[in-house]
Amino acid sequence: MNQTEPLRNIGDDDDVRTEFRSLISSLPSDINVQGKKLCNYQGCWYYEKNLHAVLDYQKHFKPLDTDIILSSYPKSGTTWLKALTVALLHRSKDGIQSHPLTSDSPHGLVPFLEMNLYLKSSTPDLTKISSSPRLFSTHMPLHTLREPLKDSPCKIVYVSRNAKDVLVSLWHFRSKIEKKEAEISSLNSIVESFCKGVDNNGPVWDHVLSYWKGSLEDPKHVLFIRYEDLKEEPYAQVMRLADFLGCPFTQEEIHRGSVEKILNLCSLCNLSNLDINKTGVSWNNMDHSIYFRKGEVDDWKNHLTTDMANKIDMVIHEKFQGSGLKI
Ligand code: PAP
């Protein structure tokens, strides 16, 4: 989540900027709980600066067939999914010595499209990306993400999480950014805003459903993973992720304990204790450590009142009815 002002290219095409500004001014707008203006584009709410980046992404991004895009609603397990994917793609017979995860944070290794690359430049130089395959991440919903992908066979992995845990995680995250105690009044506002659907990248139900439906319609290219399943059966889920990405574990790797090594490397405890994540700072000037907290399922029970939980459950029940999806 980027809180800093974008550093745009000086030579941006003026006509395109004017076209974007005119489009954005015609969109529905609203104010979120933090008093920040949001615009609704293709059914999703964005801060204006991120929306410019989304539009640039849609206009300029040229996918490679091998690209992998990791997607999520904020606070749903983005950091963990990034780490697991990097670890899967960089596994080698030598184990985890000099592993990329020990020299950069998961967010540094898998940059956000609209909150990093296209926020800094309308046409970022993607040839500088040295990883192969290229790894990107996003908080855009699937229909918006897919616009420039057209018939590309690139792979998209989505991680979803119980909405009540997402809200509690977001509450702690925002409190840390604002250097305030996590107070019940701000949690109440976050719940209200969630139920109304007006928050950056919201409404969460449309976000999740876009990927859920996409994964059912096109399972070869869209994989849907639940944070809770990753916690409950990490081994099976990592095998599933490896199969989907076209890098399944060999029998030899399984015997050597490669899956367990990756899970240990990417555990919250291990990642949060790496020097790079204890002391480093992200592209958006945030400490890497802010992305690691408890990582527990049902932590909401420690924070939400019964009234808050019931309100959220009612919205989720109504919005997901008939979709076959339980989060
Ligand atoms: P982002 O969308 O802003 O990048 P994201 O990584 O999705 O954030 O969410 C952070 C949550 O993932 C935190 O959850 P919590 O507040 O409930 O604790 C964080 O602790 C959790 N998390 C980060 N890394 C891991 C990991 N390796 N394993 C499990 N959970 C993790």
From TrEMBL:
Its EC number is 2.8.2.-. It is an enzyme of class 2 (transferase). Residues 65-324 form the Sulfotransferase domain. Signal peptide: none annotated. The keyword Plastid does not apply. It comes from the Eukaryota. Keywords: Transferase. InterPro entries: P-loop_NTPase (IPR027417), Sulfotransferase_dom (IPR000863). PANTHER family: SULFOTRANSFERASE SULT. Belongs to the sulfotransferase 1 family. This is Sulfotransferase.
